[in-house]
């Protein structure tokens, strides 16, 4: 007999967990602590399996039935709903992997850095990159996406900062490749696109002044 909203709502806990049947394999599992969970029993590949449809009352009777019907459609098409649910979850998790998430993981992996250097690196990323590409999916980021914010730093005259950002961006994307998040490092193509600061060469010290210098050091 199909369940009703009243029957689901009024189901009381007992000493042991028990099930209330709705139909087409869907049941309401009532635990001794009063928690209620929707489950779908089905067969796939000759094996009996169970699919979690959610917790009541967050998932209502109507919503649970809709999820059951979707699972039944998958079964009709030869798809295991439990495996499909896992695949969807993995895809959603991958979509949540942004440049900022990867950059912070890369930063945390460099444990040999001093505390002061580590703080400077992170602040540089926060100040110059995260606003423009931080929320972007790591898989969707191309060379130009990375180059634009670095070029902005270069145009401001901070050439050394821009050069370091280029190096760090390349390292971050390499880290993403090494962890299987992307197949190719788009930051590699930035090489040569950023101007380098000219080093100032100091005049050579006159040999006759070496004794004077040593005296000052003492």
UniProtKB/TrEMBL annotation:
Q: What InterPro entries does its record include?
A: DNA_brk_join_enz, Integrase_DNA-bd_sf, Integrase_DNA_bind_dom, Integrase_recombinase_N, Phage_int_M, Phage_Integrase
> Which keywords belong to this entry?
DNA integration, DNA-binding
In this chain the Integrase DNA-binding domain maps to 3-87
**Annotated Gene Ontology MF terms?**
DNA binding
Residue ranges constituting the Phage integrase central domain according to the UniProt record: 99-193
Q: Does the keyword Cell cycle apply?
A: no
Q: What superkingdom does the record give?
A: Bacteria
What Gene3D superfamilies does the record tag this protein with? 1.10.150.130, Integrase, DNA-binding domain
* One biological process term in Gene Ontology: DNA integration
**Pfam families named in the record:** Arm-DNA-bind_3 (PF13356), Phage_int_M (PF22022)
Family assignment?
Belongs to the 'phage' integrase family.
Q: What is this protein called?
A: Phage integrase family site-specific recombinase
Q: Which organism is it from?
A: Enterobacter cancerogenus
Q: Which gene encodes it?
A: intA
């Amino acid at each position: 007999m199909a369940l009703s909203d009243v029957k689901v709502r009024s189901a009381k806990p007992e000493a042991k967990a028990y099930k209330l049947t709705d139909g087409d394999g869907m049941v309401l599992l009532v635990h001794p602590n009063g928690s209620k969970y929707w489950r779908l029993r089905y067969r796939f590949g000759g094996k009996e399996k169970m699919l979690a449809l959610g917790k009541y009352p967050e998932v209502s009777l109507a919503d649970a039935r809709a999820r059951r019907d979707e699972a039944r459609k998958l079964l009709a098409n030869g798809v295991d709903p439990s495996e499909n649910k896992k695949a969807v979850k993995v895809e959603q998790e991958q979509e949540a992997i942004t440049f900022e998430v990867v950059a912070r993981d890369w930063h945390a992996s460099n444990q040999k850095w001093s505390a002061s250097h580590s703080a400077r690196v992170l602040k540089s990323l926060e100040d110059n990159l995260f606003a423009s590409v931080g929320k972007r999916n790591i898989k969707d980021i191309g060379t130009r996406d990375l180059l634009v914010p670095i070029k902005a730093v270069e145009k401001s005259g901070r050439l050394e900062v821009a050069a370091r950002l280029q190096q760090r961006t390349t390292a971050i994307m390499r880290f993403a490749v090494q962890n299987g998040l992307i197949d190719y490092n788009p930051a590699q193509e930035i090489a040569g696109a950023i101007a380098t600061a000219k080093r100032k060469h100091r005049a050579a010290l006159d040999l006759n002044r070496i004794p004077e210098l040593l005296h000052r050091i003492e």
